[in-house]
Design goal:
three-stranded antiparallel beta sheet, disordered C terminus
Length: 207
Amino acid sequence: MRDEAPEEGGGYREYAPAVVRLLQGPVYDEDKAVWKLLVSNAHLVARYFARIGVELVLDEAEGFAYLSQPGGEEEEGRLRLVRRTPLSFEVSLLLVILREEFEQFDANNADSRNLFLSAKEIRERIGLYFRERADETRLVRELERYVNQVESLGFIREVDTPEAVSHAAQPLDRVYEIRRIVKAKVNNDFLEEFKKSMESYGNGNLV
């Protein structure tokens, strides 16, 4: 136990900012100070969270880290520290679409890992799964709502860098960076659950 004493005391303060940021949400390598702190103390941070039943998921190659907590809402008398957000079918569908976009992007872009899509491109991709509707204005509003929900969950973020703006379909079109954490979150378990949900929609079109 002696080797843990420094960590319990002054040592913890060295990586405390990384712990706090992880509790707030995913950490990306673009946040250079926190990312460097996290990577250099990864084993200590992982051990810290393991004590309370939380797993550190760190992918240095993809440049992101987040916390995962298996089990139900309450396990062995402990409440969940990592919040689970229920997703609607439409939001799940959009996440699956973005995951597929990454598959194509990575296969054709070995020298870049930043995937950008305009708001128009995202709406077009998810819009393909909707049946023809008479009220096109209402449909656009609904698609915008799904995009905003995915953004609020941290899977995409609006950007205006020169590289991103070049992907805009028109001058005032918003452009989003698709965060690579989508590849980790939309895993095989997610896809299997989504497949079951998709079957309830018949041919895959939304009513």
